[in-house]
Specification:
The protein is α+β, with helices and mostly antiparallel strands. The protein folds into two domains: about 5-255 and about 425-435, no CATH class; about 260-400, no CATH class. It is about 35% helix and about 25% strand. The protein contains 15 helices and 21 strands. The chain has helices spanning about 15, 35-40, 50, 65-80, 130-145, 160-170, 195-205, 215-230, 275-280, 290-305, 330-340, 345, 350-360, 375-380, 400-410; strands at about 5, 10, 80-85, 90-100, 100-115, 125, 145, 150-155, 175-180, 185-190, 210-215, 245-250, 255-260, 260-265, 285-290, 310-315, 320-325, 370-375, 395, 420-425, 435. The strands form five sheets. Strands 1, 4, 5, 6, 8, 9, 10, 11 and 12 form a nine-stranded mixed β-sheet that branches. Strands 15-17-16-19-14-18 form a six-stranded antiparallel β-sheet, with helices on both faces. Strands 2-3 form a two-stranded antiparallel ribbon. A hairpin with a 5-residue loop joins strand 9 (about 175-180) and strand 10. Helix 4 packs parallel to helix 5 (about 130-145) and helix 5 packs across helix 8. The radius of gyration is 23 Å and the shape is globular. It starts with a strand and ends with a strand.
């Protein structure tokens, strides 16, 4: 059973730092060098100084970005830049954002959630992880003894029972608000009402939790706990090392958005529509849509209207063509032959079809390089741009849906990397979770 608990968060003292918007940042893994500098310039107290401290020439095992983050955290707590809440709470979060011309509101809450290894309880992963990011986060955990940003978890409460109880408890209180660099507004309330928190705990105790974002952080939390236990620490069942900060969102929330992750592929110089037909027609029904950007947007619209996972579109820089590919029964059989270790549900994902069938047929030697974008206005022109901003092949893939995530994850199977992109990201710096 998922164990969700209220806790006394470490939070920014606005009397010291001013606007919350100036001190929050997105998760570390979406911060490039330009955004990192922009955040550093916004405020001397921006959480990026802890979350993603810049590397400096001369860094070594004793003095590095992790030790600097820890030192800054100590200074901020000593100077009351960050202060601990006086009462345990869960933290209601409402995010208002736009996708295209449509405005959405996603609601959830942050709490500490008891860690359990994947496959041994009610918390499920849906994507593979990499060793590098986990090693990086573990060094930061050890240095700061703090969860600086939340894992993003989903739970199947389609009547939104949990959120109704928490919202009722905040009806007469005002939120603190922050707007990020993408224009997403996050509002946060501390819920200290014991009855409301207990009602949420009671409902959630019977439900599974699916990790939507933050798999590396979650697995790092498990490793941090494992090492604490080996060192003779965290013996108490409610020791803070046994928990991780998590943003919890109902799978029935109307503001939940999963965006597609399109692929910009290099390593296929000279590939054109003719080659695609020659190599892929035994396994796909292929339709030539046209040439140029307009054809790319048309192809994407056809994918959206089709509403299935078995259709993808490829744009080739060599000839400017856009081609739609829909999997045939022969393709289903060939994919099953290539990856028999995976379920039919996994093999039916658009990203699986692209990577394990189409691209393996086009480049059996491998060696492909990928960049990832989430909107057609980014992916379509890249198929026709010369130079570094372009690509040999632009691949448009349908967005996964919540049913795919739940079905595959609940079977302890993991989707291919970059299968989902839950938008918007949950900000770092709204609340921090001390691990000691």
């Amino acid at each position: 059973m998922a164990d969700i608990q209220a806790f006394r968060a470490l939070r920014y003292n606005l009397a010291k730092v001013g606007m919350l918007s100036d001190v929050v940042c997105p998760p570390y893994d979406v911060i490039d060098a330009t955004l990192q500098q922009r955040l550093l310039d916004m405020s001397p107290y921006n959480i990026v100084r802890l979350e993603l401290q810049p590397e400096l020439k001369g860094d070594d095992d004793n003095n590095n970005r992790y030790s600097r983050a820890a030192q800054i955290l100590r200074e901020w707590t000593r100077e009351d830049v960050l202060v601990t809440d006086t009462r345990p709470a869960v933290y209601l979060v409402e995010q208002n954002y736009k996708v295209g011309d449509e405005t959405h509101t996603r609601k959830g809450f942050m709490a500490r959630v008891r860690l359990e290894p994947f496959g041994k309880g009610k918390i499920y992963a849906h994507e593979e992880t990499l060793s590098g990011p986990k090693a990086d986060r573990l060094k930061l955990y050890k240095a700061t003894s703090t969860n600086l940003s939340p894992v993003f978890g989903l739970y199947p409460d389609y009547k939104n029972t949990v959120m109704h109880a928490l919202e009722e408890a905040t009806r007469n209180t005002l939120p603190i608000e922050a707007t990020d660099h993408l224009g997403v507004t996050s509002r946060i309330w501390a819920v200290t009402d014991v009855a409301a928190v207990q009602a949420a705990q009671s409902t959630l105790s019977e439900l599974p939790v699916f990790i939507a974002d933050g798999h590396h952080r979650y697995e790092t939390g498990c490793k941090y706990l494992e090492e604490a236990l080996e060192a003779g620490e965290a013996k108490d069942e409610n020791a803070p090392q046994r928990f991780i900060l998590m943003m919890m969102v109902s799978m029935g929330d109307p503001g939940l958005t999963i965006m597609p992750t399109h692929r910009l592929v290099d390593g296929l110089p000279g590939i054109d529509a003719k080659t695609i037909v020659e190599k892929l027609s035994p396994y796909f029904d292929i339709e030539h849509v046209g040439t140029g950007d307009e054809a790319g947007y048309t192809a994407w619209q056809q994918i959206v209207e089709e509403g299935t996972q078995d259709i993808i579109a490829l744009g080739t820089r060599a000839d400017g063509n856009w081609t739609l590919l829909q999997l045939k029964p022969e393709g289903v059989a060939e994919l099953a032959r290539r990856v028999p270790e995976h379920t039919a549900e996994w093999r039916g994902l658009g990203v699986s079809i692209l990577h394990r069938l189409a691209l393996e047929l086009l480049a059996p030697q491998g060696g492909l390089k990928f960049r990832y974008v989430h909107e057609d206005i980014e992916a379509v022109p890249a198929a026709h741009i010369r130079g570094a901003e372009g690509c040999d092949l632009s691949a448009l893939v349908p967005a996964c849906e919540m049913d795919h995530v739940a079905e595959i994850a609940s079977g302890n199977e993991k989707m291919p990397p970059k299968s989902t992109y839950f938008y918007p990201k949950v900000l770092s710096g709204l609340v921090l979770n001390p691990l000691r």
